[in-house]
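[Automated response] Your request has been received and processed.

Submitted sequence:
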Amino acid sequence: MNLLLINPNTSEVMTAGIAAAARAVAFPGTTVHATQPTFGPRSIEGHYDEAIAAAGVAEQVRLHGAGADAVVIACFGDPGLDAAREATSAPVIGIAEAAFHAASFLATGFSVVTTMTRTCVIAEHLVHRYGFERRCRGIHGTDIPVLALEDGGAGCVDQIEAAAREALARDRSGAIVLGCAGMAALCATLSARLGVPVIDGVAAAVKFAEGLVALGLRTSAHGDYARPLPKVYDGWAAPLGW
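Generated structure:
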């Protein structure tokens, strides 16, 4: 199958790292095409960044979605998720939604450890949107800048581990969800150190995407996920119209 992996920020280094994490868990027959928007923020650390990044996700689905069997949006805010589902019939998986589901299979409660504290509210909104209020017991910021994870986060692992240990104790959780795609490479290390399941949303999203494709399931085109209405788009968005 062909998997379109979209990093919604414009860091080529981070895109390469996320792609490596996806390929590490993908089936041998899965081809991962990793891409990022041609415009937007180098890192997504707030509502404004996310709004611009969502348009970038829509751009990439418009450009590359036709040849994809599934799409993964590799940012923990799941920016542009609904727009992407409108734009393609292929299954579209956001890494936050995937991670929450995976964690709920493994523990009665989980905690999220993410990057900037200011983005915790974005994760909280997603927890409520996806209906995980009773399973997510806490969301904890480390104030690690997203771009500090471009190298896979090796220099940040101790800080993330400390936050995770505090979360497990304070929240009485049984699992940790990593709240940034840039943390993907740290998943196995943290799981071994903490002794609990640590869920990387990139890996979870890839496996869910492969499963949906294997089941022959597609995104519904009924109701609000119907294809976008034909209309003219102006300015820089002109090529994105239908």
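Summary generated for your ticket: Residues 110 and 136 are 5 Å apart (CA to CA). The chain is about 40% helix and 15% strand.
If you did not submit this request, please reply to this message.
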